[in-house]
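Q: I'm writing up a methods section and want to include an example of the input and output format. Could you take the sequence below and give the corresponding predicted structure tokens, formatted cleanly so I can copy it straight into the document?
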Amino acid sequence: MKAALRYAASAPVGMAVAGIMALAAPATAQTTPGPTTPPEMVATYSALADAILAVKRTEGDLVRSILAATHAHGEVQFARAQRSIGAGDAAAARAAVEALASDVAQLATEGDAAVAAVRKRLLEGGHHHNSAGEAQGVYDEGFVIVTRAAKQKLLEASRTIGQMAASPKADALGAEWQKVKTIYAGLMGPAK
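A: Here is the clean output for your methods example:
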């Protein structure tokens, strides 16, 4: 009987303790931090992010260099064409104007066929330098510096210059080359 009384008296206390523990359990679970990523892994991932972003900047710098070299070659061809026109050397003028048209086309396409092959390989690997700009229609797929609008203008200038090759006129060639120089200057502004 004494044992029964002791059990009956302790049962409500035991139930009360169990109830308090049950109420406290969710609070404890909420304040206990979950597993965290080890700091060494976070540091490595951060270093990887730095490397990826550095490679993207390097790609931009490389394409700017390709454009600068192409533009410089165009300057040489323009000067050669102007000298040849002034000297009345039709064959030399034609060759220089054709080379200039080719340079302008390469400005439009951020390089020649060899560069396009590299761009294609990057795209096939899932790399898009300007993915947001591509989605907005600002850049053609894989392009780094030259926008669609600039590409179109440069291709038009290339066609116009190419059509001058048969009978180039210094003033008309100069005016068309000035358009190219203006587009180029806009593209080569400060890196974004």
